[in-house]
Write a structure and sequence with these properties.
The chain is α+β, with helices and mostly antiparallel strands and 188 residues long. It folds into two domains: 2-72, Orthogonal Bundle (434 Repressor (Amino-terminal Domain)), CATH 1.10.260.40; 76-188, Jelly Rolls (Sandwich). The protein contains five helices and ten strands; from the N terminus they run H-H-H-H-H-E-E-E-E-E-E-E-E-E-E. It has helices at 2-18, 23-30, 34-41, 49-58, 63-68; strands at 78-81, 87-89, 100-102, 112-120, 133-141, 143-148, 151-156, 160-164, 169-172, 179-187. It has a five-stranded antiparallel sheet with strand order 1-8-5-10-4, with no helix packed on it. It has a three-stranded antiparallel sheet with strand order 7-6-9, with no helix packed on it. A two-stranded antiparallel sheet has the order 2-3. Helix 1 packs across helix 3. The model has no long low-confidence stretch (mean pLDDT 80).
């Protein structure tokens, strides 16, 4: 259920753009403000059920079709976001010189977090480890392979991955250049 909540805004925006509608078109038909549609699309607000149904109606799509198109990632041990899946967030208040790019969001209960800049040199070696944290990794430069349990995921600059650190994992740099990543650890 949590994954559906996180993807509702993304799905609304996708359908709206596919139908070449602007935010005010959807807001007017749904009986809500432009700002609310913007906040929902950018993952900063979740609509109530009646508002969601009004928005789906304003998009002129069946409720079942709306949810059929949403990503289902509950069966995976991790979530990967590719560089081409990020998008610019339009803020309600205009600010000059600020470009916000949505990379990742995950709804979790209150927890502490730690941020680390990690550089992984070519030919690095280490056995898979586990941590007591949920881990989010954003690849700043380079390329590496993330081994999670018995799976391997190739990550390149601009990609990100989120997973439960209790799953055995290790990043390996098989290239001839260092890779840098921003790491966020979320602790219970």
């Amino acid at each position: 259920m949590e994954d559906y909540l996180l993807n509702i805004g993304k799905r609304i925006k996708e359908i709206r753009k596919d139908k070449q509608l602007i935010i005010s078109d959807v807001a007017d038909k749904a009986g809500v403000s432009n700002g609310l549609i913007s906040r929902i699309e950018n993952g900063r607000s979740f609509p109530s059920l009646p508002v969601l149904l009004n928005i789906i109606g304003a998009l002129n799509i069946e409720v079942s079709s709306f949810f059929d198109g949403m990503e289902k990632s509950a069966s995976k041990k991790y979530i990967v976001t590719r560089k081409n899946e990020t998008y610019e967030i339009n803020k309600e208040v205009e600010a000059e010189g600020f470009i916000y790019n949505f990379i990742f969001n995950k709804s979790l209960q209150s927890m502490a977090f730690e941020v680390v800049l990690l550089e992984i040199l070519p030919g690095n070696k280490r056995q898979q480890i586990t941590t007591d944290a949920y881990e989010f990794k954003y690849i700043l430069t380079g390329e590496l392979y993330y081994h999670l349990d018995d799976e391997q995921v190739k990550l390149s600059e601009g990609d990100s991955i989120f997973f439960d650190g209790r799953v055995p994992h290790v990043p390996l740099n098989k290239s001839n250049k260092p890779a840098k990543m921003l790491v966020l650890y979320f602790f219970n």
